[in-house]
Design brief:
mainly alpha; 2 domains; 4 helices; 0% strand; elongated
Length: 138
Amino acid sequence: MFLLNPFKMFSKNKTSEPTYDEQRDLFLYAQNRIKEKKRLYYHFIAFVVGGIFLFTFNKIFNYYPEYNWYLWLTTIWLFFLIVHFINVFVTHKFMGPDWEKTQLDKLVTKQKKHIEELTRKLEQKSFETPDKTNMDTE
C-alpha cells in the first residue's frame, strides 16, 4: 500500500514520490489517530453503560434514593468525556503534525540565528582584543 515503485526510486524526479520516512510517518500518524478515536468511542460507551448503571443503582436498588447523586457523577463524567472529545477532534487539528513541524522549524531557525549571532560576537571580540603576547615582547 505504501511501497515505493522500485523503478522510480532512482529517477531524477524524486519530489513526486514520497520518501520511505514520509510514508512511515504518515502511517504512524494514521495509526495513532485511529487509536485516539477508538479510545474516545470506548470512553463514550463506558459513559453510557456507567450512566445507566449509576441510575439503576440509585433509583431501582434504592441506594440513597433521597439524593440524585447519579446526576452529579454523570455530569462530572460527561465533563471528562467532552474534554476527551475536544482533545481528539478539536485540539488535534490545531496542534497536529503540521503545527509540530512549523513549531520545530521556528525553533530551529531561532536557534540558528542565535548561534550565528554568538559566532559573530565571538569573531568581533577576537578582532578587538589585542594580542597580549606580542605586547609583552615589545
